[in-house]
Design a protein that fits this description.
Helices cover about 10% and strands about 50% of the residues. It is mainly beta.
Length: about 425
């Protein structure tokens, strides 16, 4: 009886392990748990809050009947709206980044029309936990300036990253603004050369400094490259790198790699038999921004990724958009291993024209994505919030594997006892 039991146990372990691996290869992505549309506009930033809900920001139709306003939406854990705050700014405003701060409120950063001219200024606004506006600040000069990302610093203040046409050495410069808790400026600094250098994504480093990713055409070739630079806590430049080959390369998202280096995701210009376009791009660097590898994805399709997320098992999830038939695009999800080798890709064509501009891994191991979905009415956009389930093995399969392994182990222990201990 023991031998058939052992054979059965080994068969079960092998079967469930192999079927689990086959399923993972065939379906390298988590299932979509739910999808929400939250009104007219486009979401550009998302953040999971301490209560398991979400904060979104972006743009929506202006309250005054023209232009656009910044929206700040709070939802519960199922994506249902709890409250919404509209921030007019000076008109033609958009929010690009949002965080929950230490007091339970939120800070949003973006751009708004200048009070004194046609161009835009940086806007930073703080709301309390109920969405009530606490303060609103504008920064910049006579030309076009914007804020793209924000982090809260250890002293309760904030650092904003973006770009400026008003200050600096070139056409555009990457722009950092350091604020205190009430939003008053402590310092501002610019970075870049004589061309256009822009900052988009921002990380605070463990030593209190900051790392910024964006784009730069202040290069010898004149080609646009990923611009990656690091400063100390006071904004002093420590190092800067230009990453990319002979084609224009753009960095939109930044994440810290498990080994302490950096991951920059974006797009690269390519030319094929059918003409030119953009394809998804991912670069890995060491802790000082020196490139380790670069990858281009998308096969025969043109695509762009706007956010990179770290999965629990150490893989990378990239999200954005891929061109589809009829001149529209579909929300695009790409999964790679730690070496950047593609494990699979997926488009959500059933959403009818959509894009993910931002994302975050959630505390349950899943992912929250935010962006836009076509409404089907005169090309209008709707705010899109989408939750992916945790990317974990099927619980029943895991339990069966464990049970089969325990049966095999008990059998082996029984054999050992009878053969060696009962002589």
């Amino acid at each position: 009886m023991r031998k058939p039991l052992l054979i059965l146990s080994l068969i079960l372990v092998t079967f469930f392990s192999l079927t689990g691996a086959a399923e993972a290869a065939a379906h390298p992505f988590s299932d979509v748990q739910w999808v929400r549309t939250l009104g007219d506009g486009t979401a550009r930033g998302v953040w999971q809050t301490s209560d398991g809900g979400y904060l979104l920001t972006g743009w929506t139709k202006g309250q005054a009947g023209s232009g656009s306003d910044i929206f700040l939406i709070k939802t519960d854990g199922q994506g249902d709206k709890t409250w919404e705050t509209l921030i007019r700014g000076n008109g033609y405003s958009c929010g690009y980044g949002v965080i929950q701060n230490s007091d339970g409120g939120a800070v949003v950063v973006g751009d708004t029309k200048s009070k004194t001219g046609y161009d835009h200024d940086v806007i930073v606004a703080k709301v309390d936990a109920g969405g009530n506006l606490v303060w609103e600040r504008n920064f910049g000069g006579p030309y076009c300036d914007y804020g793209a990302s924000v982090v809260q610093t250890g002293d309760g203040g904030y650092l904003v990253a973006g770009g400026t046409e008003s200050y600096g050495a070139g056409v555009y410069d990457a722009y950092l603004i350091r604020l205190d808790g009430p939003g008053q400026e402590i310092w501002e600094k610019t970075y870049g050369g004589k061309g256009s250098d822009c900052g988009y994504a921002l990380l605070q480093d463990p030593d209190g400094g900051f790392t910024v990713a964006g784009n730069s055409d202040s290069t010898e070739s004149g080609k646009t490259k990923v611009y990656l630079f690091q400063t100390d806590a006071g904004g002093r430049l420590l190092w800067e790198r230009k990453i990319g080959g002979n084609s224009d390369t753009y960095g939109w998202s930044l994440e810290r790699a498990p080994d302490g280096g950096y991951l920059v995701a974006g797009e690269v210009a390519v030319v094929g038999a059918s003409g030119g376009g953009l394809k998804s791009y991912l670069a890995k660097t060491d802790y000082q921004g020196r490139p380790t590898w670069e990858r281009i994805y998308g096969g025969d399709s043109y695509s762009t990724v706007y956010a990179i997320l770290l999965a629990e098992e150490g893989d990378y999830i990239l999200v954005g958009k891929q061109e589809a038939a009829g001149g529209v695009h579909d929300l695009f999800i790409l999964k790679t291993d730690r070496r950047g080798d593609a494990l699979g890709e997926r488009t959500l064509a059933n959403l009818g024209g959509s894009c993910a501009y931002a994302g975050q891994q959630t505390r349950d191991g899943g992912f929250i994505l935010a962006g836009e979905q076509n409404s089907g009415v005169d090309g209008a956009k709707q705010v899109l919030l989408l939750k992916l389930a945790p990317d974990r093995p099927d619980n029943l399969r895991v339990l069966l594997i464990i049970l089969a392994a325990l049966i095999a182990l008990l059998f082996l222990l029984d054999v050992i006892e009878k053969r060696y201990l009962n002589k």
